[in-house]
């Protein structure tokens, strides 16, 4: 990718973000403006904003990368991301708006009249928010590294600075306009290039990708390995190498890599012939990546993914907070319906990018940069000035992806920190809370930077599904929920899922069923959360809050009839 064009594209997006955000800054004056845009955002604008912040780096970069690495099974990610809004529409959107809350902890306290439930919900909101921020910062680092060669941590730092300024300056009113603009920018950044990419693919006689076995090099391809690694070769392949293979120094030598394991030295270049299978690198000790190990128990992992994405959307703090900005419950439902159409339009493009990456960028499997597939395709298929311009457009879209989602997440985490850690201290301390809201995941990203972005987002969905899904569904639809029941469900469901994904990210479980259960906890942690809330609530029926009848009426009756 041409660095000059790419930097220009990213800089343009940052500048446009600042200018659009300034529009919101001019009209942000009150606490309600900062937290929920004074609950006056129209359904269409809100749907654009919801879609803008929901389509994160995992959607823009990660899904195509997983399709490249693991095939069509990874289409469950966009299906789950979209279908989660159907669940939210059916069970949560309108009642949650009618609750009058600012945040998920606000809803928990209003429904259950318990400070303890509020505090636990607050901890989980912060945990989910920080988990979700990690892949946004990784996506930023990856994009900046490809554009400039800068270290990965620098991209995350740049995003942290921009997001801090945007959120602290204008709050929800400001980022609503920013995120609405960024949805259309992201859609354009994928839609325009894919037209040219498909034309180039058709001109190349429309080859079809291989899905039932390892990807193959469609063309003669040179791959440069920057770090030492061990690869596994399934079929003997003739390569030309410069560097070191199995301890032997080579300079433009032709040799055959036999079936089995081979050690590739750092800074080694290899040229593979057309039709050769891509050797896959073995997982490094302590690596956090889920992808190489998903195949051990693939069916279980698929169910874990489906449950997490279908049920986790309703509890994502940056998504839920947007429904508080609607004028009423009916507007919240309309927002959700529009979001379904907007997400569907966006996700139709992901299989195209994944398939093209499987054909024209299989070398990224060897280098470990599969998340970069979307960024690399314009240069691979088109090249020249046209490829550089389209690459700059895609890079700008990627920048919009992690900026918009990071803004929404920072907003929701800062809101909880400002209300529950720095209570009743006004907008000045909301602005102060923005700093730790983004600084903690920025620092953590320098330690656990190896997790693929879509996998990392999947972990955040699992925690959300195990904690806030039971709390919202039972809190909205069951009068019998009690504070002790909610505490038990949040601690056992959400707490166990948070522990499991933390262990996964830090590399605490490396293989076998232990790793699978911890990496995809939703299969067992969601039932644990629901079961604990129901059983403990039944055992503590006398603890049903006194104002439950009035609260349930407010949640379910249309505004003006309570």
TrEMBL record:
It is a multi-pass membrane protein. Its main location: membrane. GO terms for molecular function: acetate transmembrane transporter activity; symporter activity. PROSITE patterns: NA_SOLUT_SYMP_3. It is found in: Cell membrane. Keywords: Cell membrane, Membrane, Symport, Transmembrane, Transmembrane helix, Transport. The chain crosses the membrane at residues 6-25, 45-69, 75-96, 116-133, 153-171, 183-203, 300-324, 336-356, 389-418, 430-451, 457-478, 485-505, 517-538. GO terms for biological process: plasma membrane acetate transport. GO terms for cellular component: plasma membrane. Belongs to the sodium:solute symporter (SSF) (TC 2.A.21) family. PANTHER family: CATION_ACETATE SYMPORTER ACTP, SODIUM/PROLINE SYMPORTER-RELATED. This is Cation acetate symporter.
């Amino acid at each position: 990718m041409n660095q000059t064009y790419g930097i220009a594209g990213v800089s343009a997006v940052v500048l446009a973000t600042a200018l659009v955000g300034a529009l919101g800054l001019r009209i942000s004056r009150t606490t309600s403006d900062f937290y929920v845009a004074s609950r006056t955002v129209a359904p269409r604008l809100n749907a654009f904003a919801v879609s803008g912040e929901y389509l994160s780096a995992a959607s823009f970069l990660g899904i195509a990368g997983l399709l490249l690495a693991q095939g069509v099974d990874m289409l469950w990610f966009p299906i789950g991301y979209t279908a989660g809004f159907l669940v939210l529409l059916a069970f949560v959107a309108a009642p949650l708006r009618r609750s009058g809350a600012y945040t998920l902890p606000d809803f928990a306290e209003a429904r259950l009249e318990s400070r303890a439930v509020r505090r636990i919900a607050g901890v989980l909101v912060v945990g989910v928010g920080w988990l979700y921020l990690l892949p946004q910062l990784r996506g930023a680092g990856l994009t900046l590294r490809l554009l400039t060669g800068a270290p990965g941590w620098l991209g995350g730092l740049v995003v942290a600075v921009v997001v801090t300024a945007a959120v602290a300056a204008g709050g929800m009113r400001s980022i609503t306009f920013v995120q609405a603009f960024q949805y259309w920018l992201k859609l354009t950044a994928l839609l325009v290039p894919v037209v040219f990419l498909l034309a180039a693919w058709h001109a190349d006689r429309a080859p079809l990708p291989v899905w039932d076995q390892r990807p193959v090099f469609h063309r003669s391809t040179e791959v440069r390995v920057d770090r030492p690694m061990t690869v596994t070769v399934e079929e003997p392949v003739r390569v030309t190498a410069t560097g070191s293979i199995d301890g032997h120094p080579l300079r433009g030598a032709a040799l055959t890599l036999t079936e089995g394991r081979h050690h590739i030295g750092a800074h080694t270049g290899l040229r593979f012939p057309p039709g050769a299978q891509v050797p896959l690198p073995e997982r490094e000790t302590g690596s956090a990546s889920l992808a190489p190990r998903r195949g051990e128990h693939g069916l279980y992992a698929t169910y874990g993914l489906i449950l997490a994405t279908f049920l986790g959307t309703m509890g994502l703090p940056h998504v839920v907070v947007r429904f508080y900005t609607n004028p009423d419950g009916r507007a919240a439902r309309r927002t959700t319906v529009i979001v379904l159409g907007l997400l569907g339009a966006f996700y139709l493009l992901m299989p195209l990018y994944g398939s093209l990456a499987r054909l024209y960028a299989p070398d990224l499997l060897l280098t470990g940069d599969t998340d970069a597939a979307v960024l690399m395709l314009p240069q691979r298929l088109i090249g020249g000035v046209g490829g550089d311009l389209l690459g700059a457009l895609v890079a700008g879209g990627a920048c919009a992806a992690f900026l918009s989602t990071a803004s929404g997440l920072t907003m929701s985490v800062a809101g909880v920190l400002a209300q529950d850690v720095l209570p009743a201290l006004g907008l000045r301390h909301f602005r102060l809370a923005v700093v730790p809201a983004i600084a903690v995941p920025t620092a953590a990203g320098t330690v656990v930077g190896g997790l693929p972005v879509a996998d990392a987002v999947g972990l955040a969905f699992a925690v959300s599904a195990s904690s806030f899904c039971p709390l919202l569904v039972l809190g909205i639809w069951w009068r019998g929920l009690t504070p002790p029941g909610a505490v038990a469900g949040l601690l056992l469901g959400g707490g166990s899922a948070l522990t499991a994904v933390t262990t996964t990210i830090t590399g605490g479980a490396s293989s076998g069923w232990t790793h699978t259960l911890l990496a995809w906890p939703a299969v067992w942690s969601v039932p644990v959360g629901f079961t604990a809330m129901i059983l403990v609530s039944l055992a503590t029926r006398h603890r049903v809050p006194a104002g439950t009848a009035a609260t349930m009426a407010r949640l379910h009756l249309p505004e003006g009839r309570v």
